[in-house]
């Protein structure tokens, strides 16, 4: 068992809850740790026995190109794709960092961190696919106003 880490991957992408964010874009950073058994690669000096850094980068790049409102959603898609394409992966820890988020004040960066195993991703997908009312009768965030009590 080992860990493959890629740190400081930079992207310019169009994620954000507000329409303006999805038009002008922003700078993002991805940090990822992938736990997998890559003993074959270590022993045999062969890429087939491990997870390619380049492949991880391509997965992340492709998912970063898809506009999303939430960083959590971007991270979830990246992790889900890694598990789908690399069954040997046992755990993924992913950080999605957004620089200068529009929060109405000074903030150098906002970050979400996801720690998932293949089992937790499968369970979440199963649960979400079985829920008919995803808000349990509560108003969605964008349906709320500041004046609501």
From TrEMBL:
It comes from the Bacteria. Pathway: Cofactor biosynthesis; tetrahydrofolate biosynthesis; 2-amino-4-hydroxy-6-hydroxymethyl-7,8-dihydropteridine diphosphate from 7,8-dihydroneopterin triphosphate: step 3/4. InterPro entries: Dihydroneopterin_aldolase (IPR006156), FolB_dom (IPR006157), GTP-CH-I_C/QueF (IPR043133). Residues 4-116 form the Dihydroneopterin aldolase/epimerase domain. It catalyses: 7,8-dihydroneopterin = 6-hydroxymethyl-7,8-dihydropterin + glycolaldehyde. GO terms for biological process: folic acid biosynthetic process; tetrahydrofolate biosynthetic process. Keywords: Folate biosynthesis, Lyase. It holds the Pfam family FolB. GO terms for molecular function: dihydroneopterin aldolase activity. Catalyzes the conversion of 7,8-dihydroneopterin to 6-hydroxymethyl-7,8-dihydropterin. Belongs to the DHNA family. This is 7,8-dihydroneopterin aldolase. It comes from Aureibacter tunicatorum.
